Amino acid sequence: MVLEDEPRIRKLLGAVLRKRKHSVREASRVREALDLARAARFDLILLDQRLPDGSALDFCQALPAEARQTPKLLITGEKPLDWNADFWASFGVKGYLVKPVPFPELLEAIQPWLA
Asked: Which of 72, 76, 80, 112 is deepest in the core (most CB within 10 A)?
């Protein structure tokens, strides 16, 4: 799943994944992504830090228990100043990427979960 409110970035991330034969669901809001997470299982969630109706943390906290450990990568406009890997790991967040994400860096980051 790609959860990103900026349409251009969301479509670009989705296209990169589809080009590599992955099926992708896209959402632009926390509520929409929660509905998707309740209806299907995902191998990986790419997750924007700030969204119109909440944050990455809001999304992670509202996920059903069975989806909490789905691997997630934050996609953010800036390096999180208060990055606490242990805290985020408790929600399945494995790390973060800073926009604009170079394709090689994106592909390397998602490789462990989408090989």
From this structure: 72
Tracing tokens 């790991």 back to the chain, one arrives at 89
Q: Has residue 61 been placed in a domain?
A: yes
pTM confidence score: 0.92
Q: Supply the CATH number for residue 95's domain.
A: 3.40.50.2300
Average pLDDT over residues 82-101: 90
Q: In this structure, what DSSP letter does residue 98 have? A: E
| 25 inside domain | yes
Residue 48 has a CB neighbour count (10 Å cut-off) of: 26
